[in-house]
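Weekend entry, working from home. Most of the wet-lab plans are on hold until the incubator is repaired, so I used the time to fold the two sequences that have been sitting in the queue since the last round of cloning. Logging both here for the record. First:
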Amino acid sequence: MKGRRRRSLGFLLAAGLAAATAAAIADGYGESVARGYGELRPVVVAAEELPAGEPVDPAALELRRVPVRFAPPGTLGSPAEALGMEVAAAVPAGSYLLAADLRSPGAGGGLGAALGDGRRPVEIAVSGADALIVGGAQPVGSKVDVVVTTEPSGAGGGRTYVAARAVPLLALGPGEEGAAAGTAAATLGLTREQALALIDAQSFARRVTVLPVR
């Protein structure tokens, strides 16, 4: 009986040692990848094919970490960003899920099909996107104010003004590689005048911020 207990204890210790060794190897592999290819970032991948025109099934998404240089621009960084969205074009299993792959429900012909009022989807780099998802909220489909803060000129300080009020937020994804920390890529439903003003502002403004409409 004592011999059997000793053998059982030995098996348990061996199993624990094997698990600890595997974890150490995995950690070491992750560190070696980071050293060899640069910083890692989370990306959303389709675990199975996502059919066009269907609502996004969260169970069909996986979150992985890959080197930043390998992630295509616009790749989602969290499955939460796809909640409530519809697949615009079929996404094969194993593919990165991009903001451009999604659309608001019912916007059959594309993101701009159901906007009306002369609005078209326009992507701009923005700050403050984290404030839109506080409390687990799903920002896509809501309306936002776009605020421009200019650089100081001469002895005077910069100014802050609302460049576009209550515009539809159609998609939200990570900023381009090399962009300033906290910058995201927001696709907004803008009129031609709003689009031209914001595109111009990106060339001279200190930052362009999106704020939730209360």
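Second, folded right after the first finished:
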Amino acid sequence: MQYRIGEKRKLLAFGVYPDVKLAEAREKQADARKLLRNGQDPAETRREQKRQVKAKSENSFECIAREWYSKQGRWTANHPHRALSSLEKEFFSYIGDKPIEDITAPMILDVVRRVEGRNALDVTSRLLQHVSSIYRYATHTDRVSHKPGR
């Protein structure tokens, strides 16, 4: 689709034919024209949406937890491995891909209750300590404004 913003001529592509069907391309073109009528650049809007998706994936619980883990230099020899493996086993499979801002206290409680159900109370308390530290780290690095439940 060719369009103009101000004096600048631009071109917007909606995808390659076999992957994007004609009806879908027409739908995307109609959306782009609505944006143009509102004075917005469809290419800039698309770029901003991609940036937001990327930012959400970079701010996932797992990504921040791994970054927090890499910053822990004061641990003894075996402790870092146990901390990361318990987070991988218990948390990452359930809420690891979610943006840390979207994780709620009930989600964390659900994971903790699963561990409690196995009667692994020592692991439960350590996991809660690690999650609290991860949220503290995320707060200090301005990725989240609050801990879940607050």
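Plan for Monday: verify the second prediction. Residues 2-57 form one domain.
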